[in-house]
């Protein structure tokens, strides 16, 4: 008898983007407003499937989650909240996206991609 009920885990991930990379920023030609990452599950049996369970449009940018677990976050607007000081500060966890990983046997886990925005006077 084979038991396929195992624990699949995925670590939360942090992404870091810079306002200066926006079209109105001081380094608009660069790509610092874009973050590319990958979800790395552990346990279970591949292949894995990845599903975004929160909206792809965040408060400050958009996330694209690919079938292979890679993702791209693109900052689309500046962070101008109460803690923004228009200096070079990192504003923690300003966008958040939840995803589900499913292994070949249907075991699932959820994780979160957290986005930090460097408020660096665009």
Mean pLDDT: 84
**Computed Rg:** 17 Å
Give the strand line-up of the largest sheet: 2-9-8-5
User: What general form does the structure show?
Assistant: elongated
Helix content: under 10%
- In CATH, the topology is named Immunoglobulin-like
Strand content: over 45%
Q: What is the number of independent domains?
A: 1
Which CATH architecture would you pick?
Sandwich
How do the helices and strands follow one another from N- to C-terminus?
EEEEEEEEE
CATH domain class: Mainly Beta
Describe, in plain words, how this protein is organized in 3D.
This protein is mainly beta and 122 residues long. The chain is 0% helix and 46% strand. It has strands spanning 9-10, 13-18, 34-38, 41-42, 49-52, 61-65, 70-75, 89-102, 108-119. Strands 2-9-8-5 form a 4-stranded mixed β-sheet, with no helix packed on it. A 3-stranded antiparallel β-sheet has the order 3-7-6, with no helix packed on it. A two-stranded antiparallel ribbon has the order 1-4. The termini are far apart.
What is the topology?
Blueprint: E1 9-10, E2 13-18, E3 34-38, E4 41-42, E5 49-52, E6 61-65, E7 70-75, E8 89-102, E9 108-119
Parallel strand pairs: 2-9
Antiparallel strand pairs: 1-4, 3-7, 5-8, 6-7, 8-9
């Amino acid at each position: 008898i084979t038991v396929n009920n195992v624990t699949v885990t995925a670590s939360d991930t942090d992404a870091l983007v810079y306002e200066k990379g926006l079209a109105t920023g001081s380094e608009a030609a660069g790509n610092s407003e874009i973050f590319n990452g990958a979800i790395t599950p552990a346990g279970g049996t591949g292949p894995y499937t990845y599903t975004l369970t929160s909206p792809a449009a965040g408060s400050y940018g958009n996330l694209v989650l690919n079938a292979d677990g890679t993702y791209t976050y693109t900052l689309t607007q500046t962070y101008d909240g109460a803690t923004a000081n228009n200096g070079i500060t990192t504003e923690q966890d300003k966008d958040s996206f939840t995803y589900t990983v499913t292994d070949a046997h249907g075991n699932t886990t959820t994780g979160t991609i957290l986005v930090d925005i460097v408020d660096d006077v665009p």
